[in-house]
Structures are given as C-alpha cells and as structure tokens.
Amino acid sequence: MEKTAAPLPARRVTPLRNAPFRRFVTASLISATGSAMAPLALAYSVIEQGGGAGALGVVLATNSVPTTVFLLVGGVLADRVSRSRLLFLGNLLAAAAQGALAVTVATGHATTTSIAVCGFLSGTALAFTVPATQGAVAQIVPAEQLQQANALLRLPSNAVKVLGPAVGGVVVAFSGPAWALAWDALTFAVAAFLLLGLRLNAPVTAGSALGDLRKGWAGFWSRTWLWTYTASGTVLVAAWLAGFQLLGPVVAAERYAGARDWGLVAGAFSAGLLAGAVVCLRWRPYRLMVVAVAAGAPLAAPLLVMGWGLPLPWLLLAALLAGIGLDVAIVTWTTAFQQHVPQGELGRMSAFNSVGERLAIPLGYLLTALATGVWEDRTVLVACAGLIVAATVLNLCVRDLYRVNATRD
Question: Are 237 and 356 in contact (CB under 8 A)?
C-alpha cells in the first residue's frame, strides 16, 4: 500500500511580507532616530540661550500640556478621517515646528518663548498622531498578525532608544543642538510622506463630532476591561515615573556611584525593553489582557531594590526584568486593544486611554514632591512599589479581563 507523505507544517506569515506594514515600520524607525536625540538637543537649546531649570520646565510643560488637551480631538478625528492623512499632517506639523526651532537656534535668535511655541506645536502634532497610530496598524495588518506586528514596531524603536541618546550627545557636543533638531525635523518630514503613501480609507462615521465623542465615552465606559486597565495604568505609571525617573537618580547619588551607576541602570532597563520585544516575537499568549496586566508588576522590582538599599548587581537585574515586563505589557495590551475594539472606535478609545496615562505624569511628580517632604526617599520608593503591586493585583481581580483573549490564525 502506497504511503502518503505527511503534509509540511504551514509557514507562519510575517507582517513584514505586507508592503504597507513595511512602509509603516520604516517611517516609525526613521522618526525614532530623530526623536531619540530631540530631548537632549532641546535641553541644551534652552541652556545655551541662558535659561535654567525654570525655563526648561516651562518649555517641557508647553510641549506636554497640548498633547493632553487635544488628545480627545485627535481621537475623534482618527475615527472620522483617513488615518494615513492624519498621520501625514501630524508629522508634517512636527517637522515644521522642529525645523523652525533648528533655524532659530542655529541663527542665535532662540528665546524661551520661541522654543516654547515650537514645543507647543510639536505637542499638538503628537495629540493627533497618537490616536491614529493604533488604528492605522489595525487597518494594515490582519488581526491574527497584530502581536507580531506590534513587537516588530517596538524592536527597532527600542534599539534606537539605547543608541539615540548617546549619538545625540556626540552630535550636540561637537556640532551644537541645532543640527540634532534639524535631523529630527527631517525625520518627521520623511516619515510624513511615507505614511501618506499608505492611503488608508477613512472609517465610516455618521453624526456630529460632539456626538461621536459622547458615543466614544459610552463605549469606553461599557468596556470594563478597558477603563479598569486605564485606571490601574494611571496609578502604575505615576508610581513608576515618580520612583524610577524622579527619585532614582537622587538615590543613585546617595547610595550608589551617582551618574555612572545610574547610566548602567538605565542601560539595563533599555536592554530589557529590547529583550521584551524579542520575547513577543516568539511567544503568543492566549490571555492577552491578563498577561498585559501581570507583566507590569516587575516595574516594582527596581524601586524595592533601591528602597531596601541592595547592591548594584541586584538593581541592574531588577531594571532588566522591569524593561522586559514593560515591553511585554505594551505589546500584549496594544494587541488586545486592536483586536477587541471596532475599527471605527479605535481613535477615541486610544485617546481616552492616553489621557489617563498622561495625567499620571504630573500627578506622580506632584505626589512625590509632597511625600518626600514627610518621608525619606527610600520609604517613598517602597510605597511606590507597593502601589504598582496593588494596582496590578486589583486589576487582575476584574473578571472582564479574562474574556479579552488573542485572535488565533
């Protein structure tokens, strides 16, 4: 009797075979190379024109506030117009703002006011591109390939985060901040035209913009898994930023070897982000939201290590694990969001979620400033770690979380 050969296993189709997705990844990578240098260049632009911490604070505020204020507008537009056109216009506005800033810095005409105005325009542009991005990816890539696509998007951007600041430091040191800002403007412009070529259809909507916003809020509130994740995420982000970004360098100066050791910690965290993206390329969990929530818990580890005064090797290991957990959380959360929110609502749902996370930034810094006036820094670090663990555990108790699972091939 003739034997029948066993069928060969089907090869998993990668999103990189999708030409529009390759265009999207390329645009993201190019833009990331400029964005990684921009913060350092911006800071030294303020310093070179005689500004101090107060002036830099004003500039950073004018960059972040419009993003939060206009996010809901950007979310509504992302569900009403072509997302590729919205991404094009947002990146073009950012290119114009950074280009104008580069010219004023190069010619010696930069002032705190002019830098703040350019920062305001860049922040406004971000408010319109953030809600459109997730919806654009979901339009380009089939649902079963979304996790791999999100990991592929994170991988090069994480690599740039490791190398970008160092390269930016060299550019600023030898050529001045204007050249780094000009490069940032150029990358935004190139990304804008690449994204316009996607030619994505506009979601089908009806009714007024205000009515869409009300419907969006009703849809957001009706999804328990979504608003509870946003609420717990606001607490988690506030505690993480307060503990790691604000108190971390202070404790490093007191307990460790200052800037040198803190640079190693930051590098370990960035390496963890890279490793987390690699993990998500290979591992495809079924319970996406459960993994997204649980993977945020390791963020408490470096805060506990610093709070307890453990040696540097323990802190490096904790920072590495925190980076891995954070990237796994981001990729699985983004995938769950894209797979379980309808195309016509992705922009508004993303905006509501992003507003919560962005409000966590000033909230975390303010509460930390108040707490450090009462407790020691190490006590505040342990408290921040406790908030992260508590937010994670409480969110894992939400039953609706366990029905938001992966779409399989």
Answer: no
Q: Which one is the CATH code of 214-403: 1.10.10.10, 1.20.1250.20, 3.20.20.70, 1.10.300.10?
A: 1.20.1250.20
Architecture of the domain delimited by 17-143+164-203 = Up-down Bundle (1.20)
pLDDT digits (tens, 9 = 90+) for 53-92: 567 667 767 777 888 889 999 999 999 889 999 999 999 9
Alpha-carbon distance of 134 to 131, in angstroms, equals 6
Backbone φ, ψ for residue 295 (5° rounding): -70, -15
Full-model pTM: 0.85
Per the CB < 8 A criterion, the answer to whether 124 and 93 are in contact is yes
Kindly tell me if the per-residue pLDDT of 10 is higher than 50: no
Give which of 311, 322, 320 is closest to 255, Cα–Cα.
311
Q: How many residues does the chain have?
A: 409
The 3-class secondary structure across 376-388, one letter per residue, is CHHHHHHHHHHHH
Looking at the chain, the domain(s) classified CATH 1.20.1250.20 span: 214-403
CA atoms within 13 A on the CB side of 277: 16
Q: Rounded to whole angstroms, how far apart are CA atoms 165 and 373?
A: 32
Instruction: Please tell me the distance from the alpha carbon of residue 264 to that of residue 252, in angstroms, as a whole number.
Output: 11
The distance of Cα 222 from the centroid of its chain, to the nearest Å, equals: 25
Exposed, middle or buried, 50 (CB in 10 Å: 0-12/13-18/19+)? exposed
